[in-house]
Design goal:
GO terms for molecular function: hydrolase activity. It comes from Arthrobacter crystallopoietes BAB-32. With about 230 residues, this protein is of the alpha/beta class. The chain is built from six helices and eight strands, in the order βββαβααβαββαβα. The chain has an eight-stranded mixed beta sheet, with helices on both faces. The mean pLDDT is about 95.
Amino acid sequence: MAETTPHQNLTFPSAGGEAHGYLALPESGKGPGVIVIQEWWGLVDHIRDVADRLAAEGFVALAPDLYGGRITHDGAEAGKMMSQLPEEEGARLLAGAVDYLLGSEAVTSKTVGAIGFCMGGGFVLALAAQQGEKIGAAVPFYGVGQGVPDSYAGVRAAVQGHYGKQDSSYPVEKAKAQAEQIKRESGAEVEYFYYDAPHAFHNDENPQGNYRPEEAKLAWKRAVAFLKDKVR
């Protein structure tokens, strides 16, 4: 692995090509690996901050850039950008990120965790289904979009979900059905939490004003503890 700084943009190999992302290292320079998957806005400052916060908790956190540098703060444009990201392309980039972390001298774990938000929450589950034993923990926050897989048979990770009871983008009934489907098809350990909050309640920079600080704090505490317990 090339010499790294605590926080940096980097390029990593992915399916014969190159992908880009943001890497945050803990103070020790080493730790368990976690993939941080962006919302539909792109690799914005909020997602970089999530990676930094995970690094502060001792993780080596990599946030892949699924849009090739494009970001937006407009909901309509974000929806269009998400719809233009083929599921296969997103999965390919994320698989490269997994291999990069598992091959890094900075990563001390034999598996990696995956945490994602909105569109990224859907891709967390797709990545867990695709990568099997390589993913130790999958943490979707209100996952939506084409990344949400149809089958969870390949999931070997423990799964912890965080969903809002007021989320019109992914109603709580769908989330509860999803949790049961994951258990049924994969036999994985699954726990879902439901909050008195709308979609994107964890994003303190959300352009639509959905941030709920108390719910976000509780969900984050649960997610960090879960990742520390399951990613080894």
